[in-house]
Specification:
Produces ATP from ADP in the presence of a proton gradient across the membrane. The V-type beta chain is a regulatory subunit. This protein has about 475 residues and is of the alpha/beta class. Helix content is about 30%, strand content about 20%. The radius of gyration is 27 Å and the shape is elongated.
């Protein structure tokens, strides 16, 4: 801790938000300053800001100044604190909002005396993890039925600018059956931040939510700290308190852009489209925090990844696809079943959900695929068969009842609605499903028996 008593005054260069300071001279041992350590930058005019060590080259340390270097002079002093960034962690942080530098953004009581937890540490030992086997219900039919969200999963929402991905992310956070919600906002405009906070408050989940927010007007360097703080706190809740934690991050493309901006200021050699060569490893380091712990709860990560120009080959979504376990594809305000994928859904469908879940999922997608083909035939003026007309009718009902992200249904009610939709369009023998499932779940006509013989009850018989 000796370096905490020393102030360094030899500031040799200021570029963007990067400050370079000489920490030793030739022939002298440099102090024990480590990568990611925090420092306090003070100016002669009263300027004070935290900074983070991002590079050490012999006797020169490069620091990212949290509040930016506007007004910082070479006469400033630097004092190293001897530790990396820490996030406040205790039960008292629930219902609170923090800035990207870890300071409180709301007007509640101060938390300076609360315990701190180090950020940016390694992911948990794989020996302490268990195989994903528990479903997180979201009441979004296109997720629960067709691409189930599983505890310990890491999965993004792929979208483009202008789509309601923030509204979808907020709905999932509100409706998901998780114990704790940890929200990380990256480069949000104030309206979006206010929307998330108001949505969580109105839904009554804010008392079990903690928010880390970097606004678009805030320093870019703070954008790089938000995921680490959110994940460090989430990991503590999951490991030490056995909570089922859902982490929501928006938008990881903004995070990658912040990495690129810092890399350019550091004169690093860029890779694909100007992004740094370590883009994959930096994102993977955060995503790999997702886990279902053998002794404890679970940590699930759901993010937004915007695709500039809708280009899925853009470096950010392209690298993300290799790290995560699928994606939800949002376009035209609907979740597309063909662009979406959950690689862990087979661990829960039919195992912790109803027996007909797998067959319903496959049959509905088969019919919707046929409806898309029938639409193309209709657009090209080909003759349509009677079955094609049934498929077209099914396609309309499918988009209206399931694909709209505003639709909210519990899983069992959504499965029953699937059976009703198929019954409105097809005969039982056209479903090509197991007969015992058809006998049990296929809706029956209301007057199929004599008046004095009551119908046999069934799970789908009460569907309107």
């Amino acid at each position: 801790m000796a370096q905490t008593l020393t102030r360094y005054t030899d500031v040799i260069e200021i570029v963007g938000d990067i400050l370079k300071v000489r920490i030793g001279s030739a022939g002298q041992d440099t102090p024990a300053i480590a990568y990611d350590d925090l420092a306090l930058v003070e100016g002669v005019d009263g300027f004070r800001s935290l900074a983070r060590v991002i590079k050490i080259d012999r006797d020169v340390a490069s620091l990212q100044v949290f509040s930016g270097t506007k007004g910082v002079a070479t006469s400033s002093t630097v004092q190293f604190l001897g530790h990396a960034m820490r996030a406040t962690y205790s039960a008292n942080i629930l219902g609170r909002v923090f800035r990207g530098d870890g300071e409180l953004l709301d007007t509640g009581p101060e938390l300076t005396a609360e315990p701190k937890v180090a950020t940016g540490g390694p992911s948990v030992n794989p020996a302490r993890r268990v195989l994903a086997s528990k479903m997180i219900r979201t009441d979004v039919p296109m997720i629960d039925i067709f691409n189930s969200l599983v505890e310990s999963q890491k999965i993004p929402i792929f979208s483009v600018a202008g789509e309601p991905y923030n509204q979808l992310l907020a709905r999932i956070g509100i409706q998901a059956d998780a114990d704790i919600i940890v929200f990380g906002g990256l480069g949000l405009i104030f309206d979006d931040y206010y929307y998330f906070r108001r949505a969580f408050e109105d839904a009554g989940i804010f008392p079990r939510t903690v928010m880390f927010v970097n606004l678009s007007a805030d320093p870019v360097v703070e954008r790089l700290l938000v995921p680490d703080m959110a994940l460090a706190v989430a990991e503590k809740f999951a490991l030490e308190e056995g909570k089922r934690v859902l982490v929501l991050l928006t938008d990881m493309t903004a995070y990658a852009d912040a990495m690129k901006e810092v890399g350019i200021a550091m004169e690093s050699v860029p890779s694909n489209r100007g992004y740094m060569g370590d883009l994959y490893s930096q994102m993977a380091r955060r995503y790999e925090k997702a886990a279902d712990y053998r002794e404890g709860g679970s940590l699930t990560i759901l993010t937004v990844t915007t695709m500039p120009g809708g280009d899925v080959t853009h470096p950010v979504p392209d690298n993300t696809g290799y790290i995560t376990e699928g994606q939800f594809y949002l376009h035209d305000s609907v979740l597309d079943p063909f662009g979406s994928l959950s690689r862990l859904k087979q661990h829960v469908i039919g195992k912790v959900t109803r027996e007909d879940h797998g067959q319903v999922m496959n049959t509905m997608i088969r019919f919707y695929s046929g409806a898309r083909d029938a639409q193309q035939k209709q657009a090209m003026a080909f003759d349509l068969s009677d079955f094609d007309h049934k498929l077209l009718r099914f396609g309309e009902l499918f988009r209206e009842r399931f694909m709209d992200i505003d639709v909210s249904l519990p899983l069992e009610a959504a499965l029953d609605l699937c059976w009703q939709t198929m019954a409105e369009c097809f005969e039982p023998e056209e479903l090509l499903m197991k007969q015992q499932l058809i006998d049990r779940y296929f809706p029956r006509p209301a007057a199929s028996h004599d008046a004095d013989v009551p119908d046999a009850p069934g799970p789908a018989a009460a569907v309107a």
